[in-house]
Amino acid sequence: MMFYDVVLLVVVVEAVVVVVVVVVVVVVIVVVVVVVVLIVVVEEVVVLVVVVVVVVVVVVEVVVVVVVVVVVVVVVVVVVVVVVVVVVVVVVVVVSSSSKLVVVVVK
Known about the structure:
107 residues, mainly alpha, 0% strand, rod-shaped, transmembrane helix, transmembrane, membrane
C-alpha cells in the first residue's frame, strides 16, 4: 500500500504542478495581451491627442490670420476714409476761401 500511496502522491503533485504551470502561463499570456492592447490603445490615444492638438493649433493660426487680415483691411479703409475726408475738407476750404477772395477781388 505504501508504494501506491507514494505513486498517488507523486501523480497528485505532478498534476498540481501542471495546473499551476498552466495557470501561470495563461496569466502571463493574458498580461502580455493586456499590455499589448494597452500599448496600442495608448499609442492610438497619443496619436489622437497629437492630431487634435495639431488641428487646434492650425485652427487658431487660421483664426489669427483672418483677424489680422480683417484688422489690416479695416485700418486701410479707415485711413482711406480719413484721407478722403481731409482732401474734401481742404478742397472745400480752399474753394470757399478762394471764392470769397474772388468775390472780394471782383467787388
